[in-house]
Specification:
By secondary structure, the chain is α+β, with helices and mostly antiparallel strands. It contains 26 helices and 26 strands. The strands form 5 sheets. Strands 17, 18, 19, 20, 21, 22, 23, 24, 25 and 26 form a 10-stranded mixed beta sheet that branches. A hairpin with a 5-residue loop joins strand 11 (166-170) and strand 12 (176-185). Helix 1 packs across helix 10 (311-350) and helix 15 packs across helix 23. The longest helix is centred in the N-terminal third of the chain and has 48 residues, at 249-296. It is globular. The chain crosses the membrane at residues 270-290, 322-347, 367-389, 410-435, 441-461, 496-519, 722-747, 774-796, 816-835.
């Protein structure tokens, strides 16, 4: 029986190739994801470990904190005195203090070099022989004075800077010019992530990023014969245990490796989720393939029974075929997945992601998962067709080779599908009523059962739906149209399985499209309806805070009409810490469209506070109410509510006050952005005036309202395109399923097609009949997928509509119509081979076929 199974596998190469391809795609996605994330994790961990080479003990400062009365506790960092005490320990060979923060370097055109979020500045701190062991200089030396810097080799090459050149560098304040004294290489993660690293003289870096005489970290090297654990025990008594953390370099490297693994876990799970969708869709294709193969061999299997094979042997022979196909597919998928991982790495490097160098990691676990998934999916999908083969009686050898399922046999299926589908719809509606994160979890479970119910019910749905369009097909295409509609429902189970794979893919694509476009338009409305400012000034890449001097500089610049910082602070209200927006009272109304429900924004200039509507209702506050707050410095105040405004989530905090008052109680302000209005309105000249007023600072961006719309719309479109790409694999497998179904349909109707040819149906109309059948099946699945996708998008959107300003469901009819059109095109393309095969059938040979 095993030899028979092997022979059958080899005898149906073309049909089994589609099954192999379906499983291969899914397994490749899984193995490629695992190989890529394992490789990336090992590379990043190795890079992290390299950065701690020679570091026996690392000390990190948490900085100062405040007690309940607002008094400062602890020091801003690790003092020079503490460093000297550590250095004096007998087991210490060297001590290096570190400070770091944001620093942006401009190229010759004034544009920022690097990724924004990965642009760093740090201190050059010579330890041994006047050198800092963290950096290897390829040209020049490290900075030793106020006006000097050193650059990493990649940044220097990009900016075409050489030792002795003047370089424009900005932190979060005005841009300054420095003399380049050296170019170095480093294992710093920021540089390897596509950013830049600027080294300042030690005193300059301390002044920029912390406080003179203090460090954020200490890296301690051990003398020969002194263990890291012993040195750690000696260092700890010299530290402020409450405000610092000391650990061995090895422990810190291991901790960072663990953090890297967790960070990659989210990406890993997302990619594996899409791989799972592809494999789930592949199950339908595999099921159809083995159903087709079993149907084609009905006589052969019945004859095997007649000559002595029992049911178990026949079932095992079919499962053995599935096992062979699964093993072959898994091996090919694993190899393809490794290639995919290499490709992903190359693509990321091409986009300047600069993944650290390292060997490709193909773990035994990855190999095991690839083989197990491929074999398991194939075997499970073939289980039902194999079971059906055992029910073939020997007498069937003299009967019809392929009998369609009767309507009666679908009764149990329809009842079961109705129950599961109803439970799924109920779960979705329950999730909508619950709302929030809990509601979304319930909704996800309901959506799963709803899809399962749809899959089970598809045979029942196919008959009335396709029957409804039969008159249209007949009127438009004549006899081929009528026959195509009849053929599409001849075997409702097979039609349902084929349509299900398309329906699942388009359900997900449609839901993502509707949600993505709805969110994009909500953000667009926020930027156009709520934002009146001509420009928004922020740090490049959206990382870091602007210096307080930015708003002051712009307020005094010519051609500027109104300026207001968007400072973020915190106050304690009752037992809760609440965020506060610090603004300029005289101008904020000109820059944001704030709908005041009660009171006036002019009250902000009097030291009063404005409260968002939802917060006011929750805390039962009205205009004139008194609000007790405690500032960050511990001081308490009674503030009068001078205005209640409609929530502007994403633009304003629930509380708004004069920034001068907020700044007086904050040691350091976090200014996320500054809004600006030009005297003559928005124009290129006005935008350039803002850029010039900031000293053509490469670390800052001046965005127009259109830029802000494009920025948010770009994020949504990028996310959608990624999702489309990931779901594309499932849709490819769906296309293969349509091809399989049509091929099986042509085989079953060989004699019928011969008779049709004999009574006058020419080859062209035979092809049209097969093509139309494919289009009908494809559109049936597509319409169901689009309808369910819209429903799920509505349900999901309802759960977070309250947290998105002016949320309103948007149905992108153009895109939905495009999905249906593409489904029809898919049907036509999928029918090319089966239609050609049907048209080339020899008329007399086909009539004689049993």
């Amino acid at each position: 029986m095993f030899r028979t199974a092997l022979r059958n596998v080899l005898a149906h190469k073309a049909r089994l190739l589609m099954t192999v391809l379906a499983v291969t795609l899914g397994v490749a996605f899984v193995s490629g994801t695992l190989v890529f994330t394992d490789t990336l994790g090992k590379s990043l961990s190795g890079q992290s470990a390299k950065s701690y080479d020679g570091v026996a003990v690392s000390v990190t400062s948490y900085g100062t904190s405040r007690d309940e009365d607002g008094r400062k506790e602890g020091e801003p960092g690790i003092s020079q005195q503490t460093l000297d005490k550590v250095k004096a320990l007998g087991g210490v060979a060297s001590v290096s203090g570190r400070v770091s923060g944001f620093a942006g370097v401009g190229d010759e055109d004034g544009k920022l070099i690097g990724s924004g979020w990965a642009n760093k500045g740090g201190n050059y701190a010579p330890v041994v022989d006047g050198k800092d062991p963290r950096y290897t200089f390829t040209d020049g030396t490290g900075p030793t004075a106020d006006g000097q810097i050193a650059l990493d080799r990649s940044t220097a090459a990009t900016g075409r800077y050489r030792v002795g050149d003047t370089v424009r560098v900005a932190t979060n304040g005005p841009v300054k010019e420095y003399t380049l004294t050296g170019v170095f290489t480093t294992e710093d993660g920021a540089v390897n992530a596509g950013g830049s690293l600027v080294l300042f003289d030690n005193a300059v870096a301390q002044r920029l990023y912390l406080q003179p005489g203090y460090y954020q970290e200490l890296s301690i090297g051990a003398r020969a014969g002194t263990t890291a654990d012993r040195l750690l025990a000696d260092v700890k008594p010299l530290l402020d245990a409450e405000h610092t953390r000391a650990q061995t370099g090895a422990a810190l490297a291991a901790e960072q490796a663990s953090d890297i693994k967790k960070q990659l876990g989210g990406m890993n799970q997302m990619l594996l989720g899409f791989a799972g969708i592809a494999l789930f869709v592949g199950i339908f294709l595999i099921y159809n393939t083995f159903t087709m193969l079993v149907t084609q061999r009905t006589k052969e299997l019945a004859l095997l029974r007649a000559v002595g094979a029992n049911r178990g042997q026949v079932i095992r022979s079919v499962l053995a075929e599935a096992l062979l196909v699964g093993v072959l597919s898994s091996v090919i998928g694993l190899v393809t997945g490794i290639g995919l991982a290499v490709g992903m790495r190359s693509v990321m490097n091409a986009f300047d992601a600069k993944i650290p160098a390292g060997d490709l990691v193909v773990s035994p676990g990855t190999i095991g998962w690839a083989l197990a998934i491929g074999v398991l999916v194939t075997t499970l999908a073939a289980l039902l067709p194999a079971w059906r083969t055992g029910r073939i009686a020997p007498v069937a050898a003299m009967g019809s080779a392929h009998l369609p399922a009767t309507a009666k046999s679908l009764v149990v299926r329809n009842v079961l599908g109705s129950v599961i589908g109803a439970a799924g719809v109920g779960g979705v509606l329950l999730g909508v009523s619950a709302g929030g994160d809990e509601g979304r979890m319930i909704l996800a479970a309901g959506a799963f059962f709803m899809l399962i119910g749809m899959i089970v019910l598809l045979p029942l749905l196919s008959r009335p739906v396709i029957a409804a369009i039969r008159p249209v097909l007949q009127k438009l295409f004549g006899v081929p149209g009528k026959l195509a509609a009849q053929n599409a429902v001849r075997n409702p189970r097979r039609t349902a399985v084929t349509a299900a794979s398309l329906a699942i893919g388009l359900t997900l694509v449609t839901a993502l499209s509707v949600i993505g476009i709805t969110m994009g338009q909500a953000v667009d409305r926020m930027s156009t309806d709520k934002l009146k400012a001509d420009y928004r000034v922020s740090m490049a890449g959206g990382v870091g805070a602007l210096d307080t001097s930015v708003a002051e500089t712009l307020a005094g610049a010519p051609g500027i009409k109104a300026v207001s910082p968007q400072a973020i602070g915190y106050v304690t209200v009752g037992e809760d810490i609440r965020s506060v927006s610090g603004v300029t009272p005289q101008t904020i109304g000109q820059l944001l469209n704030i709908e005041v429900i009660g009171g006036s924004l002019d009250s902000l200039a009097k030291g009063e506070i404005a409260v968002a509507q939802k917060t006011a209702e929750k805390q039962k506050l009205t205009t004139g109410s008194t609000l007790q707050v405690r500032y960050d410095d511990g001081r308490q105040a009674s503030l009068t509510v001078g205005a209640v405004y409609k929530d502007l989530e994403g633009l304003l905090s629930p509380y708004v006050m004069d920034n001068k008052i907020l700044a007086a109680h904050s040691e350091e302000q976090y200014i996320n952005e500054v809004y600006v209005n030009a005297t003559g309105g928005e124009s290129k000249a006005a935008q350039q005036a803002v850029v010039d007023a900031l000293g053509k600072n490469p670390a800052m961006t001046v965005a127009t309202r259109q830029d802000m719309r494009n920025e948010m719309g770009g994020l949504v479109n990028t996310a959608l395109n990624i999702m489309y790409g990931l779901l594309g694999m499932a849709l490819i497998i769906s296309v293969l399923g349509v091809v399989n179904t049509l091929a099986m349909s042509v085989f079953e109707r060989t004699q019928e097609i011969g008779m049709l040819r004999a009574i006058g149906l020419d080859r062209g109309r035979v092809k049209n009949m097969i093509r139309l059948e494919a289009v009908v099946i494809s559109l049936f699945g597509a319409v169901l997928g689009v309808a369910i996708g819209v429903f799920l998008a509505w349900a999901l959107g309802t759960t977070f509509a309250s947290s998105v300003p002016d949320y309103a469901l948007v149905l992108p009819f153009g895109r939905l119509g495009l999905f249906l059109l593409l489904a029809a095109v898919v049907g036509v393309l999928a029918a090319m081979w089966p239609a050609r095969s049907a048209a080339r059938l020899n008329m007399l040979t086909a009539i004689k076929t049993e």
